[in-house]
Specification:
Strand 3, helix 7 and strand 4 form a beta-alpha-beta unit. The longest helix has 18 residues. The strands form two sheets. A seven-stranded parallel beta sheet has the order 1-2-3-4-5-6-9. The chain contains 13 helices and nine strands. The chain is of the alpha/beta class and 322 residues long.
Amino acid sequence: MADGATGTNLFNMGLEAGEAPELWNEAHPERISALYLGAIEAGSDIFLTNSFGGNAARLKLHGAQDRARELNRMAAEIGREAADKAGRPVVVAGSVGPTGEIMEPMGALTKASAVEMFHEQAEGLKEGGADVLWVETISAAEEFKAAAEAFALADMPWCGTMSFDTAGRTMMGLTAAELVKLIMKLPNPPVAFGANCGVGASDLIRTTLAFSAAGPERPLIAKGNAGIPKYVDGHIHYDGTPALMAEYALLARSAGATIIGGCCGTMPEHLRAMREALETREPGPRPALEEVVEALGGFSSASDGSGEDAPQRRARTGRRRR
């Protein structure tokens, strides 16, 4: 089992909107340690480091672009210390998020610059003691390829997830099946791949089903949000309960995922419920879309990106289990 949210948990610890979480690796290392330990104590076997926005392009917004390697090293060092105290094997995954820029030919970011930024992050995470690199929330094939190249330069194993949040596609138009084909062609493929974030838990399961239907030879990752975000009393709140996330974890396993965690809004209480469900309930058969809707709620769109929309339209009529 993987971990849950980083940003949501840090906001609960006092992180302000617009503040760079990576700067907390230096300013508040005890809070970052608490973040990691919260996931470990809730049952996570893998947790991601506080380095999602730790590339030079994103850190430039905070005047810290020259500190990328250092801040990534700090994130992994705190994680290494937490994992070594766990009393059981726990994997430190060095989180690498998107650059936030558009790559050529649509944008100005060159492949060479993207590889350089990802490589800088990778070396910092490697120095800090990360076991594996983990690029996440990617939407463009070109950026995914650049990360793969950078991680080869760092000589580190890696995992990779994209975010499918636009009618079953990434923001740049990739489908789940197209990601599988991309991975099969990479000279340095990830040890595991899948989807994270996106819209809601039900959409994430639908994407996982599309991955497994494509017949990949590598382990699948499912890391969905804890429900749908809502603005309540001045704060963003995700409506997914621990019980719902437990059902999500079981469905993710039945859909073919072997590494299961949460993304935005997923707190330690969600992880505990997920862990208990995975340990105490037997794996089920591959779920139908109607079963996913019944357990987790309707999909955000009729389309899953494949063009075969009729089953998805029928699935949206299902009741939501409260």
